[in-house]
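Example record

One chain of 473 residues, shown exactly as stored in the release files.
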Amino acid sequence: MRAMDWWNSDARIFIRRGGEPARGGRCVVYWMQRAQRAFENPALEVAIRAANELRLPVVVFFGLLTTHPVANLRHYTFMVEGLIDTATRLKRRGIGLVVRAVAKACPARTFVEFCTEVNGAMAVTDENPLRHSERWRKDAARILRIPMLSVDADVCVPSVLLQREQYAARTIRPKIQGLLPYHLKPVRHVAPTVAWKSPARPASPEPSMTLLRMVKVDGSVPAAPGIHGGTSRGLAILRRFVRQRLIGYASRRNRPELDATSRLSPYLHFGHLGPHTVAMAVMKGDAPAYDRDAFLEEMIVRRELAINFVRFNRNYDRLESCEPWALKTLAIHARDRRSHIYTYRQLERAETHDPLWNAAQTQMVRMGWMHGYLRMYWAKKILEWSRSPAEAFRAAVRLNDRYELDGRDPNGYAGIAWAIGGKHDRAWGPRRPIYGMIRYMSLQSTSRKFDSKAYLARWAPDRDSQHRGRFAI
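Predicted structure tokens for this chain:
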């Protein structure tokens, strides 16, 4: 195999722009986007391998958006904490990191300008199925004059091998299970043979909390209390979960009043941890096989079903993404009488008649996290209390993306599509008002499945405190 041809045989690697590395290039540039880590990052390892063959150093470019239509101080704080951790880990490996403030309209152009500035021989980036990130990669590949690869670094099974949108977990599960033995392996760290040397006048500040001063961030949603970003934090939480809470996970995971879940979704969303790292740790855990299998079903099958949905369905954050049967039944019942209709503002402030829904919304607003079981109930009730299914979908997406630390993520979009539009589900009977054949959840049945009194005692909103600004919205 000719030198550098190895990238043609790896299903994780997409050739965004072909050609030979630039002669006289001085480094390989890795545009870090979704996989914001220096630990077990397949995209970074591809960049190092290419750089070693070219006998060049690696420099990581990170574009920090100066404004964002949805992300706020909560998200930016967590992300920047992760960048600090990543900068330290990169430095130990002899890899540079340059952070630039980037206008939302031109991240690709800023990246291309950086490649020219450092005389890059070739470029590597990581995959992200969300539409804006895909557009950035296409724009960069069109403008660049050097080869560019993108690496599917945040899935266990390369997305391209699934070929098309999968209908449900039952259709994707056998495909993933058949491919996992070939792809679920430890990510091998490659040592750079040439260390990056910072220029005499660095092009950007060293990553620190001062990075927040580079952006005009919405400060109305504060950082989530007690939750901090970074690979080191994520690994500590992972180790604690495997050691203390993986045993019993299968029976306790749908108990919102218990601290039984992994709480790793923000670290996976920002790429501070990779799914390989989490899966391998769980597989090596001492918990019974049924507990490990229950977690891996959620972490691999369900998560990668969501990624598949977003990758192949361009309407992923809209009602139109759902199946024809679901759209038909919702249309038939669109004019059904609603016993309650709430505005977005009322939903945001947890001002409904439903104490369980209010408690779940309060938990999300305060902590940046809501238990997965209650997320289903939460979204279904928004359907029930909105003027139309499309309005409900928009409200659920807006609330999720604004307050959840793992907002703007395939898991969130797939979960909302499942709850409101029957995505990855089947028709349920008998027909109900408003829902039609969409699966129904009631306050009474949901509350009976866990200790709802304990959950309400912890998360029921304090109305007096709320009106004094406790929600900070």
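Notes: The chain has 19 helices and six strands.
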